[in-house]
Amino acid sequence: MNLCFGSAYSFSIFLAPLQREFGWSRAQVSLAFTISIACIAAGVLVGGRWHDRQGPAPVAITGAVLFSVGIFLARYTHALWWLYTFYGVLVGFASGVGYVCPLAVGMKWFPEKRGLVTGLMVMGYGAGSALIAPLAGFLLHRYGWRDTFSLLGLGFLVVTTAGSFFLRNPPQGWRPEGWTPPSREKASSHTLRDYPPGEMLRTGTFYRMWFAYALGTSAGLMVIGHLAAFAEGAGFSPRDAALSVGVLSAGNGFGRIGSGWLSDHLGRTRTLSLVMGVTALLLLLEPRVGAVLLLFGSVFLIGYCYGSQLAVFPSATAEFFGIRNLGNNYGLLMTAWGTAGIIGPMAGGKIFDATRNYEAAFLVAAALAFVASITIATVRPPLPN
User: Fold this and answer.
1) Could you list the pLDDT tens digit for every one of the 385 residues in the chain?
2) From CA 331, how far away is CA 325, in angstroms rounded?
3) What is the CATH number of domain 2-166+188-376?
4) Pick from 265, 280, 295, 345: most CB atoms within 10 A?
5) What are the C-alpha distances in Å from 358 to residues 13, 40, 228, 288?
6) Helix (H, G, I), strand (E, B), or coil: what is residue 334?
């Protein structure tokens, strides 16, 4: 399911074809991706609340059908409002609704390894473009962008609806054999109770996490939303530019597993601070990359660090605010990612239109990642009442 839902990250492949056909600016076309990211966050918020009340099955099937229909209808794009409505709003919202289900289900079945299992559950979402981007690039070359949207939409419908029937929550009160919840001695890294959403919103912990999440993912999304176009503008071939999107997405997927596992041992906030700091360094160097292997290596690491955030923040939410209201609580926190979806791709497009290159955009993204790294290092669980 998440391999398909994560294909929204492949949108940069469609930037150039849509610009050539309609004469729109880079910022105008990339706004569809911006809207999509914002609506994914809205979908997670709605889907999380729905999941907490009725379980994953009805939520997942709804997201699956709406997502596939939105991709298919994007083939009929003839004006910006159509692209924004169906690729931006419908695809984004449905992707978020579907995404939250395997995430919440996985953490409930495996509370003793939340970091690792969250990384595994969401790996497909980040790695989806590693498969979809090369496939979409091939279909674009052979059939054009309209037929590419329709073929992807039909394929996604089959996979996502089938996968939605396999999601089930564990029985109430279930826990793995031999596992006990963290003791009071571990209260420095775990909460001792479940926070309802309203109570979570009254803690400073939530707002520091939200701020760091928004800035850290803004940096990654600025690259993701413009990578193929950046690579072509830097002199790489269209084929290598398309492959770089897949390489970044592969890094995105590996980061979700690797840092998910690492956070189980190093700690959630330490892991997040580390990957955000590395992101800042990579973005400072990225505009100077001139060889294909360096391009692939650097974007893999950028994707790795970005994916790490999407894996570790959910498990940090569970540890800081409890598991009972996880779908709803993480939906609220993920509005930071939706905000990042507005800041990152749109800022990248506007800076490019003003300067005709991406160097300044990458410098801004590096600054955002650095501030995020410092902020998340200060986060601690809320103090017990």
Assistant:
1) 888 888 776 787 888 889 888 988 877 888 888 788 788 888 888 888 888 788 888 899 999 999 999 999 999 999 999 999 999 899 999 988 988 888 778 878 887 777 788 787 777 776 666 678 788 888 888 898 899 999 999 999 999 898 888 888 888 777 787 777 655 444 445 555 788 888 999 999 999 999 999 999 998 888 877 787 788 777 788 888 878 887 887 888 788 888 888 988 888 999 999 999 999 999 988 878 878 888 899 899 999 999 899 889 988 998 899 877 887 888 899 889 878 877 887 788 788 778 877 888 888 889 999 999 999 999 988 876 6
2) 10
3) 1.20.1250.20
4) 345
5) 17, 26, 12, 11
6) coil
Do residues 37 and 340 make contact, with C-beta atoms less than 8 angstroms apart? yes
Alpha-helix runs per DSSP H in 144-170: 145-164
Locate 152 and state its tokens: 């992807």
On the CB side of 195, how many CA atoms lie within 13 Å of its CA? 26
Among all chains, which residue has been given the structure tokens 């989806």?
A: 128
Question: What does R_g of the chain's alpha carbons equal in angstroms?
Answer: 20
The H or E element containing residue 226 is none
Give the three-class secondary structure for 254: helix
At 147, which amino acid appears?
D
Q: Which two tokens stand for residue 362?
A: 């990458």
Is residue 30 a contact partner of residue 225, using CB atoms and an 8 Å limit?
Answer: yes
Burial status of residue 243 (CB atoms within 10 A of its CB: 0-12, 13-18, 19 or more): buried
Contact 268, 316 (CB under 8 A): yes
Q: pTM for the whole thing?
A: 0.73
Other CB atoms within 10 A of residue 155 CB: 16
Among candidates 209, 343, 182, which has minimal Cα distance to 264?
182
How far apart, in whole angstroms, are the C-alpha atoms of residue 210 and residue 208? 5
d(C-alpha 175, C-alpha 268), whole Å: 22
Contact by Cβ (8 Å): 247, 240: no
Domain regions of the chain by residue span: 2-166+188-376
Which residue, 31, 28, 33, 30, is CA-closest to 7? Answer: 33
Distance CA 252, CA 190 (A): 27
Residue with the two structure tokens 């970044």: 248
